[in-house]
Each structure stands twice: as structure tokens, then as C-alpha cells.
Amino acid sequence: MRHVIALDVGGTGMKAALAGPGGELLHQARRATGRERGPEAVVEGILDFAAELRAYGADRFGEPAGAAGVVVPGIVDDEHGTAVYSANLGWRDVPLRALLGDRLGGIPVALGHDVRTGGLAEGRIGAGKGADRFLFVPLGTGIAGAIGIDGRVESGAHGFAGEIGHVVVRPGGIPCPCGQRGCLERFASASAVSQAWAEACGDPDADAADCAKAVESGDARALAVWQDAVDALADGLVTALTLLDPRVLIIGGGLAEAGETLFTPLRDAVRRRVTFQKLPEIVPAALGDTAGCLGAGLMAWDLLGTEPIGTAAIGTAAIGTEAVGSEAIGTEAIGTEPTGTTPTTVTPPEVTT
Predict the structure, then answer these.
(1) Hey, is 195 helix, strand or coil?
(2) pTM for the structure as a whole
């Protein structure tokens, strides 16, 4: 049976699947990245995992995978297949596409950015299916974005397209690791809400989910924290929709798990801010933490010139529960190193074929 390898590499774990020609997930697996062993070990772990998936597919289905799609966090050069930088994984300038191609017997390999690839899946087979223009914004530890145009996602001239989390919404506000002050993700990400609520309620272990529950119970302190985040998010989103004019605005990540506790006030806040702009449909993401892996599979089929038939069915196969975009996006999705951190330069591992 024809199939492709789909691999989603996160800051702490890897999710993988073999995807068949009908979009079905034929085999699923998980593995830790082993980042505590250093960036070289992470790269070797990715190569080993992919090789094991290829061997499993060849043994089970009678032929090896025809292509592979791999997504990673941080700065990614899609065109040249290079994982440029990741604060979480500690690497810089890793020629991951070439390394994987060698390890996988020369099959074509697509390398993508985790949020943009998650957006690709949401746009084609998830909440944005059928929309010619969409914007996918996951609200996790940081905030990033994916700009969807006619079934593809725009990466920009330098790989930075969609970084809405670093739009300044509160000039002179909270310092951001990117070097600016008042960036959107410092006010409206899940981690920002967690911090604000922990301070407001006096419980250092309280998080955004706790804040949402307190909002639902009518807690005045929680309502104030939540509204501040919603207002900042609406300011950032209106800037984005003014520039991009999306037909659908897809909100995902951990904060979106609050459901209508988030979406009802957010839709109202955005509606109050638009003037001449067309108000897009604002919807929750549909694929959860499967989006990155599903998008990797779509990229692999694209390399073969084949879009899986019936891909809508893929979204029902849950691989895990960690929300897409919940990786630390803030400092690794931009070109600025965190203060006091010197990323390790990776020497590409010697490849045995």
C-alpha cells in the first residue's frame, strides 16, 4: 500500500504516523526528543525514528514510504530544507531535509514550520476547509500564525510570515524576549494569562485553564484578567485582518480550549473594533494536536503530486492531547536569541546509508 511518513517534532516529544493514500493513519507512534542529551542527540533521534518508520512501513505494507513530511519548531527555511534555529531544541542551521533524505533512501522530504504546517492542515481539512483565505492563530506558550492562501501557507521572504505574536499592541508595555515591548503574546498567550491570573489570585500554580473556570463562575478578578487578554488579542487580530483580509480566522492552542468562554467575548471585541474591514468568521481550530502531524503528511503527498482522497477523515484520529502551538514560540519563532543564551551549533551527524 502506498503511504508516506509524517513526523511532528516538538520541544519535548515527537508524534509520527504513516498516512495512506486515502488519508487514513495506518500507524501512529510517539517518542521523546531527548533534548536533555543535547542538539546532536535530538537530530540523531529524529533520523532514527524516521528510519524505523520507513522499515515498519516496508515490512507491513510491502513497500517503503514514497515521501516524508517533517515539521519542527523555531525558524525554518522551507525552501532550502534547513532547521535554522530552535531555542527549545538548541540547534542552529541543521540541514534536516538532506539528512533525512539520505537516511530514508533518497525519497523526497518536505520540511516545514510547526505552526505553518498545522495551519496547512487546518486550512485544507480542518476548520478552514474550503476557505480561499484564512489566518490560523494558535494561542499557546507564545502566539504565532499561519497565513493561508488557496490551499497553501505563506512563509514569507525570510520565513517569518505570520508572526502575529510580535505585533506591538501595548506600546511601552511588558518587555518581550524579542527585544520589543508590548508584544501581543506578552498579554494574550496562554502563558501570559496564566501569569496574570497567578498574580491576581495569589496562587503561583494557577494557570489559564483555572482562570477560565473562574471566569465561568463569575469571579471579578478573573473577569478582569480575561478581558485584558481578550482586548489585547482583538487589537492584534484586527491589525492582522486589516492587512490580510482573511475569510476565516481560526483560533487554536491551549487558550482556545476554553471554548465560548473565549470565543463569545473575542468575537464581540473584534466586531467593536472593525470599521471598513470585512469581519471574518472566527472559529475554533478543529484538529487539536494532530494538526502538525496531519500537515506533515499533506506536505509529503504534495511532493508526490497527490492530495489524499478523503483527507477529512484524518482529523478524527487523535494522536495526543497537547494543543498545537503550545511549544514556547516567543523567542524561537523570531531571529533574536534569548538574552544570555548562546545556542549550540550542531555538527550534522555522519550519515550511514
Answers:
(1) helix
(2) 0.82
